[in-house]
Amino acid sequence: MSRAKNIESAFQIKYKTKYLLFGFIIAIAAAIVIIHIILYNTNDDRYIGTTSAVLLGSSTCMALFIILSNPRNIEVQKFKLVFVGVSLWFLGEFSYTYYQIVLGIDAPYPGIGEIFYVAGYVPLILFTYRSFKTINRNGIIKHSSIVIVVTLASILPVISTIQIFSQEVNFQIQLPDIVISTITNYGDIVLLSLSILILTKLPRSNPYIYHWILFTSFLILATITDLIYLTAAIVDEEFLSKTEWTWKAMWALAYLCILASLFWYYKLIQILSENSAEYYSRLLEMSGYAAKYDNNISVETKGELLKEDQLHTDNMQDFKLVENRINEIIKGAKYEIAILFCNLTSLRISETHSILEFLKEKTRSNI
Questions:
Q1: Architecture of the CATH domain 3-275
Q2: How far apart are CA 331 and CA 367, in angstroms?
């Protein structure tokens, strides 16, 4: 693919990012905050979890659509774990909403919602761990950094665990509550640690960076809110009841991040697949040139292979014409220039070196 086309794609991706961040995330985030403030002022807790249920349901549909629309893409199919995890969390949130809106009562704790939530940790942890292993395949993350992150992420769960066992506990009655709280706490530790490590080591040049920023933001927001909420439930229940709307809004913002992450991923694979199809057709075109000439050097600008920009020579010794034409293009170019050597094997080392040195001198770049 030409450099000019890559630049065009980069601008397209940048535009999509701007649209996503300012037109989608900020608008919905503001709406979430306003909705929760209104619910807080009206003292109506029945609908307080509705936004989370809607966002998780939308994320589930988005993940399923991505998987079904790219059945042969191995990387995309890895998102099946995300789909399962988000679906389970949606079912958990839906059960809370059903109790509050349809039945008009508080959801029991622990109840069926907690079962779905705990089950959802398994696929999400597997997906996040595999992603961490991929990023850290060359060992770029030091063991000391991993230890520090895990230690910091463990502070609140350890405090809440100590607080639980420092009180009088009736294990016969409270055992399900303790088990679910413990699994949730330490599941949050794993997800939070992995998310922070992934976020700090994302390759800045990777076009998927915004997807990963949003995905890790989802996990970081959700897990931190979980940890604070569970700790507050043990330490000060009165404080928790007064600030319930705040934590619900935080969860809703986290679920907005996963929805935006999946939406961005879908738009990005669309752009890349379109470019891949065009790239393949261009390769076929270049193969025709390579078959016709013993030595073919093509210079293209503005993403189009114009006839007057095609340089051909059957005489491997005569590169003066090539140099003159390249010189003309460099002077008149408004964009970056891509030079494709279709049949490099027909050039001797000295001749290749001569051309590259000429280009380096004319473009003042590192070739």
A1: Up-down Bundle (1.20)
A2: 18
